[in-house]
Specification:
- The complex is a heterodimer of chains A (337) and B (414).
- Chain A is of the alpha/beta class.
- Chain A has twelve helices and 14 strands.
- The mean pLDDT of chain A is 97.
- By secondary structure, chain B is of the alpha/beta class.
- Chain B is built from eleven helices and seven strands.
- Chain B has helices at 53-56, 78-103, 117-126, 140-145, 150-158, 190-204, 223-234, 283-298, 339-349, 355-377, 403-412, and strands spanning 132-134, 211-216, 239-245, 248-249, 252-253, 275-279, 304-309.
- In chain B, the strands form two sheets. Chain B has a five-stranded parallel beta sheet, with helices on both faces. Chain B has a two-stranded antiparallel sheet with strand order 4-5.
- Chain B starts with 52 loop residues before the first helix and ends with a helix.
- The mean pLDDT of chain B is 97.
- The chains are: A alpha/beta (337), B alpha/beta (414).
- The interface between A and B is large, with 46 and 47 residues.
- Chain A: Keywords: Oxidoreductase.
- Chain A: GO terms for molecular function: branched-chain 2-oxo acid dehydrogenase activity.
Chain lengths: 337, 414
């Protein structure tokens, strides 16, 4: 057991899988000798060799095409997209190829590719280093989408993603790489070391995909969140003094409907939180699911707290970011009605 | 001397236009065709920069009399040549039958490869059976040259109960892991970088198998072409990158794809990839060039780009009418002839062939295709079924069916 940041936990997951499985390779821009712009692959090339961990040309579409071909051969590629914002050129290979290969070949060819991509805001990255494009991929049949919120989960979920036989989009909340973040940008940065989930076991452990975690039990309202927003939601519930039950979804597809159903049936209220833009966001799907599965248990309308439907603005980062104050307002609204 | 620039000349946009359109006589006289045997054959270790002429020339082996001439003659034995002829004739007979089946309403769509049979057949024969192929929709000859059962292919075209792809794919989008034939995609070009990835994986694992990929000249404009060449060059991937230049991307002639001022083979030179331009209707030239490229890949010398210079004699597909955009019957006038006729002429000129043997082979091929047709149609056709159970629609989306698909399957009542 060691205390780790999320970056170190992700590194440990890849290290573990490169060691255990000779078919795992790690590829991406700057991931080799240098160890990645966020240091997630630091030391992996030195330890596992240049043909297992290597730099690629700057072409996300090319990286994905190569990864799909490698997976068809029988490897388990872990491809890093330097920022989730850069993923769009790779969409044809992701959506039309990786996600559908098993289906269209009658199960003969598969694409067990893990795509790691730092996502989300809070780092003054402007519109090309802050986006949360998860809903583009949750819409794709054949693809799984995973987002961790702690170092412990990051390692266990990444190992599960690499071992999974289907393509997995693994979005990493980059604002959480080096410490939990409650959404108060003007307060001092807290290191992971002070958080219990920074205790990361050595060796292999996998957190099953499709299972949410209850990060706070409560009876008044259910908050559905993932990634950075899990921590922001915790802070909001604390500060608004609302007895919220907070579910960290961890996997968006397939989503843990049983956990959602059980919690909302208990509380009768639901607030959905994500950083991504609102229209057509994953919150819309969650809202529809809650309505379909829990309609007769709902006391008040479902609330969504999300990023605005604008590009991510550099100077107005904190007006854009759905921080604890906005979540607290939503909590008060559902509690007052 | 630079061209004179008139003062304040108005700019004008050049939009490429093929030399002939419907109503005019087809005229291929502008085509520069070097004589057979005239193109040199460099050592397989030659760097791209020292063989740039090969990207602008044309590797040809069969001369007008059907003799194999020059340094690229692969020296194939008569049995191999007859096997090639049989496969090409089978491809053509298969195409005819499936086109007819489409017209009879037994399936929705079909694509022939008339005039391009030598490419897939000779290339499949020039690589090892265990090498991995990443085709487009016009390389059915790869499967046929690998003796993949015709009935199995037909079942795919009919989407019937025997379709290994369970009715999920459009006709001709075959896939067979056992045949080393990668699942065909309708998104053009995606297979090109995948083939390079497969080849890189083979090299990472210290395997001995190589990969080969095909793309049409039209789809070289896709980004995947550039990504594939970049990765293949950077990592010296053991892959053969084929560009089938059949001059037509549905209705757009090769000039729209950038073929007016350079060759498609020349695209490889900028990446430092040795590149050959080959007469795609010359079975021997295609075979020899492919063997040359395969030898390079197996010797860790990296990728080779091959432009197969040919002509799409038939329509793009059953949904296309080439009479709307090019002169009628253009393919019959292609100066490089018909690949099947040319190989047959070669066998005759070599003294190993006769009218009687030709007739016997034609009969054998017709019977094979007919028998396969009956076998496949007994398992169903698209107009009448039977099909796989509709519940299979929900399978293979994921390895294990997640709750939401299970729920949707129940809602669908299957």
């Amino acid at each position: 057991m060691a205390t780790m940041t999320m970056v170190q936990a992700l590194n440990a997951a890849m290290d573990e899988m490169l060691t255990r499985d000779g078919d795992v390779v790690v590829l991406g821009e700057d991931v080799g000798y240098f160890g990645g712009v966020f240091r997630c692959t630091d030391g992996l090339q030195r330890k596992h060799g240049r043909t297992r961990v290597f730099d690629t040309p700057i072409t996300e579409a090319g990286i994905m095409g190569i990864a799909v071909g490698m997976a068809a051969y029988g490897l388990r590629p872990v491809a890093e997209m330097q920022f989730a914002d850069y993923i769009y050129p790779a969409c044809d290979q992701l959506i039309s190829e990786a996600a559908r290969l098993r289906y269209r070949s009658g199960g003969e060819f598969t694409a067990p590719v893990t795509v790691r991509a730092p996502y989300g805001g809070g780092i003054f990255g402007g519109q090309t280093h802050s986006q949360s494009p998860e809903a583009i991929f949750t819409h794709v049949a054949g693809m799984k989408t995973v987002i961790p919120s702690t170092p412990y989960d990051a390692k266990g979920l990444l190992i599960a993603a690499i071992e999974d036989d289907d393509p997995v989009m693994f979005f990493e909340p980059k604002r959480l790489y080096n410490g939990p973040f409650e959404g108060y940008h003007d307060r001092p940065v807290v290191p992971w070391a002070k958080h219990p989930a920074s205790e990361v076991p050595d060796g292999h452990y996998a957190i099953p995909l499709g299972k949410a975690a209850t990060v706070r039990s409560g009876g008044a309202v259910t908050i559905l969140a993932y990634g950075t927003m899990v921590h922001v939601a915790l802070a909001a519930a604390r500060d608004a003094q609302v007895d919220a039950e907070i579910l960290d979804l961890r996997t968006l597809v397939p989503v843990d409907i049983e956990a959602i159903e059980a919690s909302v049936r208990k509380t009768g209220r639901c607030v959905i939180v994500h950083e991504a833009t609102r229209t057509g966001g994953f919150g819309a799907e969650l809202s529809a699911l809650v309505q379909e599965h829990c309609f007769h248990h709902l006391e008040t309308p479902i609330e969504r707290v999300t990023g605005w439907d604008t590009p991510y603005p550099h100077a107005f980062e904190w007006e854009y970011f759905p921080g604890p104050a906005r979540i607290a307002e939503a909590l008060r609204r559902v509690m007052e009605e | 001397m630079d061209a004179p620039v008139p003062v304040q000349a108005p700019l004008n946009l050049h939009v490429p236009e093929p030399p002939q359109r419907p109503g005019s006589e087809i005229d291929f006289s502008a085509l520069v065709v070097p004589p057979a045997g005239a193109t040199r054959r460099p050592d397989t270790g030659t760097p791209a920069a020292e063989m740039t002429d090969l990207a602008y020339g044309l590797v040809r082996v069969l001369d007008d009399q059907g003799h194999a001439v020059g340094p690229w003659d692969p020296g194939l034995d008569p049995d191999t040549l007859v096997r090639g002829l049989r496969s090409m004739m089978t491809v053509r007979a298969y195409d005819e039958r499936m086109q007819r089946a489409q017209r009879q309403g037994k399936t929705s769509f079909y694509m022939k490869c008339t005039g391009e049979e030598a490419i897939a057949v000779a290339q499949a024969m020039a690589v090892d059976r265990s090498d991995m192929l990443f085709p487009t929709y016009r390389q059915q000859g790869l499967l046929i040259a690998r003796d993949w059962p015709l009935a199995d292919m037909m079942c795919q075209v009919f989407s019937n109960a025997g379709d290994r792809l369970k009715g999920r794919q459009m006709p001709v989008f075959y896939s067979s892991r056992e045949a080393g034939f990668f699942s065909i995609s309708g998104n053009l070009g995606t297979q090109y970088s995948q083939a390079v990835g497969w080849a890189m994986a083979s090299a990472i694992k210290g395997d001995t198998r190589i990969a080969a990929a095909w793309i049409g000249e039209g789809a070289t404009a896709e980004g995947d072409f550039h990504h594939a060449l970049t990765f293949a060059s950077v990592y010296r991937a053991p892959v053969i990158l084929n560009v089938v230049n059949n001059h037509w991307a549905i209705s757009s002639f090769h000039g729209i794809a950038g073929g007016e001022r350079t060759t498609f083979a020349a695209r490889g030179l900028g990446y430092g990839i040795p590149s050959l331009r080959v007469d795609g209707n010359d079975f021997l030239a295609v075979h020899a060039a492919t063997r040359w490229a395969a030898a390079r890949a197996r010797a860790n010398l990296g990728p080779t780009l091959i432009e197969l210079f040919t002509y799409r004699a038939a329509a793009h597909s059953t949904s296309d009418d080439p009479g709307k955009y090019r002169p009628e019957n253009a393919g019959a006038h292609w100066p490089l002839g018909d690949p099947i006729d040319r190989l047959r002429q070669h066998l005759t000129a070599s003294g190993v062939w006769s009218e009687a043997r030709q007739e016997a082979l034609a009969r054998e091929v017709a019977e094979t295709v007919q028998a396969a047709g009956k076998e496949a149609e007994a398992l169903g056709t698209l107009d009448k079924g039977p099909f796989h159970s509709a519940r299979t629609m929900f399978e293979d989306v994921y390895k294990t069916m997640p709750w939401h698909l299970e729920r949707q399957r129940r809602q669908a009542g299957v």
